[in-house]
Amino acid sequence: MLARVALTASLVALSSLSARGDCGAFPRQASFAVAVTARAAAPGGAALISHVNGTTAFNFSFTTAWFPAADGDGLVVRVVECNPNHHSCAGVAHPEWTNAGALAVVRAALPAGGPLSAERVTAANISWMGAAAPPPANASRWGFADPRAAFRAATGEVYLTFDNCTQNCYPTRTTMLATSRDPFDAAAWTFRGPLLGEGAPYTGGAALLFRDGEPGAPPHLAFIGDSDTANAIWLAESPDGVAWAVVNKTWMLSRPACWDHYGVAPAGQPARLSNGDWLLIYNIDTGFPYKPNPLGRCAVGWAVLDGADPTRIVARADAPLLVPVLPYEANCAGTAECQQPWVVFSTGLKPLGGDEFLVLYGGADSVVGASRIFVNVSAGGGAR
Question: Residue 276: what are its φ and ψ, rounded to 5°?
Fold first, then answer.
């Protein structure tokens, strides 16, 4: 009941914001409509990966990246053994990465139709992406967080970005890069180091867009979260996909009078739409510490980037796409697995064909959820 009341309040707040037109104008806003076709796409409406349903050995498994695999789908899942603020940490196997977490690579089956499933997440799946693991210790030292994967078809490689965190990612957080042609083999990863080089700023994740084979050899693009303020997504460019430089620190900003007024953060790799434009999923992030918001701690929105110039936003959500309302996303206080209630935060996007996509997200920073969405581009700008 609490979740339903919160959702109703959120919708009222949204309608008043949208009615005033305070979300701003974009050149092709009317050409696109994005709708949820299956709010909870896993069997029975349950979370895709959850300690409660036995699909993970870890107390918390949440933000998840997707990549294509030869025999199905691959997922990179952030796992956390315990959080001393929300769960007993007595007897955990790896206190050195408690809070920050580690990354597990698992196989999955995520078809456009039919049930979704994923390999059970265990300690055997953990990979440090070519880097050295945190040395054993009796207290939290550092770990990896919030993976986002981009498949580069021209080279057959998965490019993985993730954050190297101390404690709960504050005050130190740096976005890292690793690459692999065989992501399931922990020894096959090449650790590239900080995405923005040594001395990189305090960032929170990066979604990569590769432009191999496009006329004029344009630079590859990265959409990077400003974790210091959570108020902006930066734009960075690279000639080779490894060396990156920020070119615009105000590329996407939170909008003061709109639903995403408190903060924005990138989700997964942008995906092509049937008309040639790009779909970019993004999150609101109300910052650290949490600033109360009727939509919760985190929610999910969308934007469309111009197919010829993806640095140009041509449409953007004037209402959230996904808000925390399901039990494992919202009012989970007192349950066996709950780090942060009122959270839906996406770092994974899988194209399903026909302008339908699967959004993968962390619910309550505790489970992996999945929802299907459809983008109507019937009036959207024409083929490119």
Answer: 100, -15
